[in-house]
Amino acid sequence: MISMIRDVALGLGYIDARPVTGHPFNVWRDRLMNIPLGQHMMFEHDPVNASGWPLEEITVWVAIAPTPPMVDWPEGCGELGGFYLHSAQQEKRLIAWEDAVIDLGFEIVRDVTLPERAAAIRAGFGVHGLNGLLITPHYGSFVNISVLLLHAAPPHGVRGPEHDLSPGCGSCGDCIKACPTGAITGDGVNALICLRNYISRPLRMPVGDYQKMGRRIQGCDTCQQACPCNAGITREYPPADMIEHMKIEKLLAAPDVDSMSQYVMRDYLQENRVKSQAALAAANTGRTDLLSLVEALIGSEDEALDKMARWAVERLRSHE
Ligand code: SF4
Ligand code: SF4
């Protein structure tokens, strides 16, 4: 079983895939309960609850694939993080892995929300970074983690919860210094004040932080770019068609969500959210030539879009 499932994963472009036991991820759950955002998160930490199968009939498979960081996006474009630019590909890859494993005759649970970073640490893929991410030896924190919940007894000798306590990244503190909102401390990440989290919950973002958003449209790689564990990783150029789609004027007027979704998962392309971020990007880069496009967003029924557009217009007018 191990070689078949792993071979399928490698054939799909994962760089490695390993099985672990289905014991509950208690270390992860306890850590989550001790951070502000964790108490608001509804993740299942126990594969038995997620599947309804007895522990001895569960194997959790974990696979990782690189999501290389981007070079700086060209001037005039909004920015997408490396994880997001590869997200549609990662989603398709996981579905293909699941389909292939079903074709091999196994039963699985789809759309499982088990803690993928905790599963990857149990599998021995890396350590827990102070920035909240898995840090691997060869790809740093720029990896996507896929988890597959399989109805099969775990192979003899696979890693279990005795490996769940990660030694940690070494805590050099460079990510703490780099984070624009002060979200990282020696205790880890306060995701409630992380820019990445504000993008999906825009009404929670204090107006005083709008300027810190820069020209980010989805994601924030600042703490990863600062991390010495990522220093040697080659950055990718965004595809030429995405550079066109990410021009701020296009995002403000009519983001081409259909075309962008060949790279970016649809969940990350909600049109009003993209326009809200583009309004901030226009203001934060002083694009007074885009003032009329931003003004047109005022009055939107989307409260966050209306609020951000008003802020952006006020700021752009002050530049005129
Ligand atoms: S920057 Fe330093 S403290 Fe932060 S995750 Fe990287 S190694 Fe850990
Ligand atoms: S993603 Fe950005 S805002 Fe969030 S912790 Fe990292 S540097 Fe800070």
Describe the structure concisely:
The protein has helices at residues 2-11, 26-33, 47-51, 82-85, 87-103, 116-123, 174-178, 195-200, 222-226, 240-245, 248-253, 257-260, 271-284, 291-295, 303-319, and strands at 16-21, 58-66, 79-80, 108-109, 127-128, 134-135, 143-151, 184-185, 188-189, 216-218.
> How many structural domains can be distinguished in the coordinates?
2
Profile the largest sheet: 4 strands, antiparallel
Q: What is the distance, rounded to the nearest whole angstrom, between the alpha carbons of the first and last residues?
A: 66 Å
Number of helices: 15
Classify the secondary structure makeup into a structural class: alpha+beta
H/E element order: HEHHEEHHEHEEEHEEHEHHHHHHH
Shape, please? Answer: globular
Average pLDDT: 94
Radius of gyration: 21 Å
**Total number of strands:** 10
Q: Give the amount of beta strand, in percent.
A: 5-15%
Roughly how much helix do the residues carry, as a percent range?
Answer: 25-40%
Low-confidence stretches: none
Instruction: List bound small molecules.
Output: iron/sulfur cluster
Strand sequence of the main sheet, in spatial order?
Answer: 1-2-7-4
